[in-house]
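Thread: nicotinamide-adenine-dinucleotide complex, take 2
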Amino acid sequence: MSKVIVSSLYDSDVFRMACRQFDLAADAISLPEAIRDRTKYPRRCLAVSLPVKRLDGSVTVFEGYRVQHNLSTGPSKGGIRFHQHVTLGEVAALAMWMSWKTSLVGLPYGGAKGGVIVNPNDLTESELEHLSRRYMQEMVNFVGPHIDVPAPDVGTNEKIMGWMMDTYSNHVGHVASAVVTGKPIALGGSQGRREATGAGVAYLTKRYLEDLRIPVSQATVAVQGFGNVGSETALALANYGAKIIAISDYTGGIHNPRGIDLGKALNYVRYQKTLRDFDGGDPISNEDLLELDCTVLAPCALERVIGDHNAPKLKCRILAEGANGPTTNAADKIIEARGDIEIIPDVLCNSGGVIVSYFEWLQNLSNFYWSRDEVLQKLFAMLDKAKESVDAQKSKFKFSRRLAALTLGIQRVADAKQSRGLFP
Ligand code: NAD
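Output below.
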């Protein structure tokens, strides 16, 4: 028997949601009590204060976190989020999902996540650089190529990863490219990493459309979030022949049943920073976008946007979870009962990002670099394999696709912990 004594450290809606998913999966595979709580709760976390000198000479102290959920299966892996609503509980939930994701797709990693409570749009470029460097400075003894390897997430990008790699390398006294992934190509970034998550979401969506015998040229797509994942998902699906009828960002969305000109939208965002006032269609709210009649709905922004309030109103055939945790436990139940929507669950759907991060890390450690074609070919082969194993688990045990994916990921982590034993 195991006994767990937990504090309220991580307590939040999103952490409870991740725990509920874990409990359902652990029950479904009868995970022994003795291994459950060890597998479920994060291993450790670090909270840091990050003082940054502002342009006007004042100092602002930001709060940042890193949660390492599981280190039993390799160095932990997961992005760093810069967003004004980051909480420790959210970071812990995201770290937990990273553990299941890396295990599900067979990577030699554990799971982690980081975050800073900040709206990066409120900072100048140099303030952002100071914040990013200060965060890495505080993490120097907590991360490393064989300990924990961060990457970009919401509000962070290649440039920030470059600053972090430089800060870490200066501390250890040599070039340590493998300490972060999602870096600029000039610093050892991988070909294909920037588009990897969206390319993976689009590839899996195409595979599920094929399973449903829906020609991709007849598919209409609504994408929430037009950042790294959302824009690359939209572009790749459009390249496959689908029609993108709606896109959005935090300022709201654009709807155009004739199809959105993505080149124009990307150009607009490059200069204006947001989609606000983009004239490629009619304005639509983020809430209404989710309820559009479309073949594919791809939430690619934040967690918990599909709940019991809108799950009964969804009108898509495929729900492709580019974001982590977009669907609440209550919404899962409703969608399962409806039976007319195929969910591609986050841990499978957006795993292309961490798969190509793994390729980047391998290239950094071996100093041998691959072509973009090689990267994408290997990525799609790994996604095919993961899709096959999830669908086999789904049919074998009559699970929902989410439960199938989670049980596979969780079982592998639990097996590793069991095999390693408990250090006295
Ligand atoms: P990003 O910062 O590049 O883009 C986020 C987008 O979401 C932006 O367009 C932003 O305006 C929009 N957004 C923010 N708040 C919103 C709101 N309340 N309503 C609607 N839109 C909103 O971030 P990203 O890297 O594209 O990450 C998006 C999601 O994908 C997150 O859930 C992240 O955890 C997940 N994810 C990212 C990666 C990766 O490689 N970057 C990998 C796997 C999963």
